[in-house]
Amino acid sequence: MRVPSLRNSNYRLLVHYLIALSLLPGLLSLKQKNQPGDKYKGIVKSSTLPNPLKAEVIGIQDGDTIELKFIFDGKKAGLRQGKAVRIRFLHINSPERGKPFYKVAKQYTSEKCFGKIVTIKHNGEFDRYGRLLGEVVLPNGSVLNKELVQRGLAIHFKKYSTSQEYANLEISAQKKKLGIWSLQ
């Protein structure tokens, strides 16, 4: 059998055509995945912020920050305007990435609320990153913010909160040496 020469223009054209044809499905799938706005397809958009806000949790940033299946277009959202609403848990601060109990706090938050519809009690206040400040009420009625402090997976954020209830939860966790307080 005689192999055609690459100098033959018809043969070269056929080889290029076959290569392009084999790459086409991959290129098309990339184009479809990267369409603008696809990330938020099917998410409710609103220029008003319901209070309380009820929505499904679609992301866990860390122990005290979650993302909801709800887009707020209001100006108060700042940098996050037109993006899925992120909730920064009011009254508390959980360990940051790389710190002891960071993964435990994030995992606990995930287990409690990821994929579930939660209720956010808020005053319509956003932080400088465009995150809505609020308390996360779980489907069973408990408040996740309080649970995290109670288990020693977050501290009462006294810089931004004067809540005596959160202060008492933290004192109780300290006395029991739970979570982050077990390291002292």
Describe the structure.
With 184 residues, this protein is α+β, with helices and mostly antiparallel strands. The protein has a single domain, classed as OB fold (Dihydrolipoamide Acetyltransferase, E2P) (Beta Barrel). Helices cover 31% and strands 26% of the residues. The protein contains 4 helices and 8 strands, in the order αβββββαββαβα. It has helices at residues 9-33, 102-113, 144-150, 164-176; strands at 44-46, 53-62, 65-72, 84-89, 92-93, 117-126, 132-137, 155-156. A 5-stranded mixed barrel has the order 2-3-4-7-6. A two-stranded antiparallel ribbon has the order 5-8. The radius of gyration is 25 Å and the shape is elongated. It holds the Pfam family SNase. Residues 51-183 form the TNase-like domain.
